[in-house]
Amino acid sequence: MNVHIFDTQLELDAFAANLITDIVTSKPNAVLGLATGSTPIGIYAKIVEKYRKGEVSFADVTSFNLDEYVGLKPYNDQSYAYYMNKHLFAHIDIPDTQTFLPNGMADDLEAECANYDRMLLERQIDIQLLGLGHNGHIGFNEPDHALSGGTHVVKLKQATLEANARFFATMEEVPEYAITMGVGSILKANSIVLAVRGADKADIVKQALTGPITTEVPASLLQTHPRVTVLLDREAGRML
Ligand code: GLP
Question: Which of 11, 87, 94, 176 is the most buried if burial means most Cβ atoms within 10 Å?
Answer without folding.
Answer: 94
